[in-house]
Amino acid sequence: xxxxxxxxxxxxxxxxxxxxxxxxxxxxxxxxxxxxxxxxxxxxxxxxxxxxxxxxxxxxxxxxxxxxxxxxxxxxxxxxxxxxxxxxxxxxxxxxxxxxxxxxxxxxxxxxxxxxxxxxxxxxxxxxxxxxxxxxxxxxxxxxxxxxxxxxxxxxxxxxxxxxxxxxxxxxxxxxxxxxxxxxxxxxxxxxxxxxxxxxxx
Length: 202
Fold this sequence. Notes:
By secondary structure, this protein is mainly alpha-helical. The chain has helices at residues 16-36, 44-74, 86-116, 142-181, and strands at 5-7, 11-13, 123-125, 129-131.
């Protein structure tokens, strides 16, 4: 369980569950970034709807990220290509761990914002499930709650900027490996890009 899957010959890739977590979380993060960019001009009911959507997607990212980390801990990773240098492997691990931190910290700070903001606006996931406030934070005295709110907002915005940088680095690195180094790193998450095995009849 959790072992890397061999496809198209001896090429090792991530297993299907890991691929699902990777692309679903990536799509949700991108969607939430796009939603957040609309806050500055939306007004009235549409603004409230956008905030609820942003919170719903954020909590989904948090839950999927926890499951992803548990799966990752129980899985065996496919090896890096032999063409990768030690500094490239080290940089990959740093960026990867940075993503894991952001996938937890970003929605947690967003949850803290929701827990310390207007209690008359509860968090309703996708308009169906009422999501609770973080225990204790929602019951703080007003002065402490305002301080916690301000700290959570600042942290959330800072983490968002760090996430932008990580996404940029990740995409550029993937493109470099695919089109310059041609070492099939991207195929570990997109199996259709894997090299075809040599035809023994040739």
